[in-house]
Specification:
366 residues; alpha/beta; TIM Barrel; 2 domains; 8-stranded parallel beta barrel; 13 helices; 9 strands; 14% strand; binds alpha-D-galactopyranose
């Protein structure tokens, strides 16, 4: 594994100098992995990472600035955290993330404006606890979306407007969420319209997971096709990309990219990670034991899988306009303890000490 100190840029130089100071103090320096992700993909698409305010200081912030060209707030802009009460917004965390991006020349993807999960308690009920009417819910949505998009207008270039509206199984296109129950399927187009009115320059995405599953892909396709045909301001589909070393196949992934592109939509990979464990429903068939250890076999399989994914992303660079990782390094991932409590996962390109893994090199060397 090749790690070098960079003298090419001020960050490298700062790191080199601080590394020398650290060496003097007997502490391991932080090397710069080269080429960096953002350099390697400069002529392809921005490479992003999901962040929380805690990632914006110390070694993680160094890594973010060195390697990435785009960030997404992991939780800070979700409806619950940012709009905890009807007449109160909590902007602090989201502002800190956008400020960090502005200071360091990073693009920002906003995430997300309308999702059935992580909603604030007050959103669907009135002061007596009764479910609100269609009109009230639409006006709450409009106010929320307008306020949030407006605040970051010109600083956020793309928004996940509606997240996960399609169910995993069955033949239905619409998840039976509160938004759907109270408003009906039009809640989706309304969300896009409100976002577009607030910032006509922002690129607006429908975002979902399991987008490579044949049945779910077909139903997402139906949904976005209908939106396009109705003239709804939707510009792209976000493939979340919560994958594993066992899936998706190259063919499954390419089919999804091609289908959405055929509608004239951009595709962004919005929440990429490659778990070292099979998905729950595949677990029994694969007979994989969970050791919580990152084995050499996992390391190699993961590098090969990431290589395959990025080979395809580059091949479709005219459709793919951003690839964003979900979390910074294996030190901390939302997949730790999920879905199995006590189990550690290793889904990213940097290890628990922020060092590049085999998978990193398989992504930048092409
Ligand atoms: C979904 C959401 C993300 C995040 C992940 C888990 O993919 O879109 O915001 O909550 O689940 O981290």
């Amino acid at each position: 594994m090749k790690t070098v100190f960079s003298l090419k840029n001020p960050i490298g130089l700062t790191l080199l100098l601080s590394s020398m100071a650290l060496l003097g103090a007997g502490i391991d320096p932080q090397p710069v992995a080269e080429p960096t992700l953002k350099e390697a993909y400069k002529t392809y698409f921005p490479i992003g990472v999901a962040v929380a305010p805690r990632n914006l200081t110390g070694p993680e912030s160094e890594l973010i600035i060195q390697q990435f060209s785009s960030i997404t707030p992991e939780n800070a802009m979700k409806m619950g955290p940012i709009h905890p009460e009807e007449n109160r917004y909590f902007w602090k965390d989201a502002d800190a993330i956008v400020d960090f991006a502005q200071k360091n020349g990073l693009k920002v993807r906003g995430h997300n404006l309308c999702w059935h999960s992580q909603t604030p308690r007050w959103f669907f009920t009135d002061s007596t606890g009764k479910q609100v009417s269609r009109e009230v819910l639409l006006s709450r949505m409009k106010r929320h979306i307008t306020d949030v998009v407006n605040r970051y207008k010109g600083k956020i270039y793309a928004w996940d407007v509606v997240n996960e509206a399609v169910p995993d199984t069955g033949t239905g296109v619409y998840r039976k969420s509160k938004f759907y129950e109270i408003i009906g399927e039009e809640y989706i187009e309304k969300a896009f319209e409100y976002a577009h009115q607030a910032d006509p320059d922002a690129r607006l995405f429908y975002n979902d997971y399991n987008t490579e599953n044949t049945s779910k892909r077909a139903r997402i396709y139906q949904l976005v096709k209908k939106l396009k045909e109705k003239g709804v301001p939707i510009h792209g589909v976000g493939l979340q990309g919560h994958w594993s070393i066992y899936e998706p196949s190259a063919q499954e992934l390419e089919t999804s990219i091609n289908q959405f592109a055929s509608l004239g939509l951009a595709v962004q990979v919005t929440e990429l990670d490659v778990s070292v464990y099979p998905k729950e429903h595949e677990r029994r068939e694969k007979k994989v034991t969970d050791t919580s250890e990152f084995t050499a076999e996992m390391d190699a399989k993961q590098a090969a899988h990431y290589k395959m994914l990025f080979d395809i992303f580059r091949k479709h660079k005219n459709t793919i306009t951003n690839v964003t990782f979900w979390n910074v390094s294996d030190k901390s991932s939302w997949l730790d303890n999920f879905p199995i409590p006590g189990r550690k996962d290793y889904p990213l390109l940097f290890d628990q000490s922020y060092q590049p893994k085999k998978a990193f090199w398989s992504v930048v060397k092409f």
